Prior knowledge:
Layout: H1 4-17, H2 33-38, E1 51-52, E2 58-59, E3 62-66, H3 93-105, E4 110-114, H4 124-133, E5 137-142, H5 149-158, E6 162-166, H6 171-178, H7 183-196, E7 201-207, H8 215-225, E8 229-234, H9 239-243, H10 251-271, E9 276-280, H11 285-296, H12 298-315, E10 324-327, E11 332-334, E12 345-346, H13 352-355, H14 362-368, H15 376-380, H16 384-387, H17 392-399
Parallel strand pairs: 3-4, 3-10, 4-5, 5-6, 6-7, 7-8, 8-9
Antiparallel strand pairs: 1-2, 10-11, 11-12
Iron/sulfur cluster is lined by residues 284, 287, 377-378, 381, 383-384, 387, 389-390, 405-406, 409, 411, 416.
Amino acid sequence: MFRVSHYLRELAEAERSGQYPLPRRRGAEGATAPERRAAPSPAPAPLGGGRHAAGGAISGPVVIWNLIRRCNLTCQHCYALSADHDYAGELDTGEVFTVMDDLKAFGVPVLILSGGEPLLRPDLFPIAERALAMGFYTGLSTNGTLIDEALADRITATGFDYVGISLDGLRATHDRFRRLAGAFDRSLHAVRLLLARGVKVGLRYTMTASNAPDFEPLLDLMRAEGAPKFYFSHLNYAGRGNIHRAKDAQFAATRAALDTLFDRAWDAAQRGLDEEYVTGNNDADGPWLLLWLQRRHPDLHARFGEALRQRLQAWGGNASGLHVANIDNLGEVHPDTMWWHHALGNVRQRPFSAIWPDTRDALMAGLKQQPRPVGGRCAACQYLAICGGNTRVRAQQLTGDPWAEDPGCYLDDAEIGLAEDRPRVPLSAFGSQRTVKVPVVAG
Ligand code: SF4
């Protein structure tokens, strides 16, 4: 996740005071990837697993937990390929609680409870209440269509730190994406019910070519509704998102959308508005912010561009397998939500705390390596230290090689510091999902 507002608020502060602010400690949503890769370890460190915080506690990754695969919707871009029926073999309440104990001991700071539609899980609230009581920052990721007054009251009483509700466009677009007439009205109603109760609500938007025209109106909607957070997700190549990749927004549209988002976030930062903008699934957004500053605000770039670059390098870009983890509905652990075709182990057989640091898995060894062993234009890119080589699953899905260049990078060769344009991996090189073979080293 790239926290656009975090950097632009610092920049706004620098513009006001003439001094670039000292790095702020991150909140519950965690430290930067390089901090986590490079932190000194007073005690034997888990292999690439985490950072020792003050007092010796190990800080583990943010865990996105797909507690249930069932969903009342069948969205076009769903990475979980969910449908409205039960799936056998999901973790029961007791198993979830056991895993939570292990996650807590491992220093996991954040649980994002997701699905499927997590509100379809009958024990969702006991799980969330326990997570909150244990001190996890606890988020809920929902399509919002099931949230009526009573459920809004229950969500509010539970005390979720954050609720993300997906909106893929305005009414017609959203209903088409969600394959349900009335879905937009129901989700927006949920946003309003929760905001009225003081819950921190964010809009989640995944951009493709066919919903790109709704992006700016959605930003306007966010501001009009008073929602404090907007999550812009680039389309990735997993689940139904993989099937639809040929329709992925082209690079020019992506660049334009990011400019719009940065302009909006900059406006909010300068005015001190309580609006937070974040992006996900394309870590080239970090370098693009630097390039945006150079183009849009050359005076500020001249004064603070180097400070911003250093701050972005401290972030370090893609955090799959490092700072972000995923547990699916069956208990399989993955480097992130887009790697459901690559399981690292199951929490029923082995604790998460043992699975996560285990670099006998070659994919995890590479993800935890710094710099990552990327090839192609990523290897030669001047921004590799900022973006971390971007989204490895996209490289794997389109080439079969998880360490190939990321075909979804929307920066051109001149921007990344290459003298001449060179052939690139096309965005739709393959017609079907490919599975990487990652050997397990005996040990
Ligand atoms: S070329 Fe690769 S390393 Fe450079 S910005 Fe693009 S994705 Fe990141």
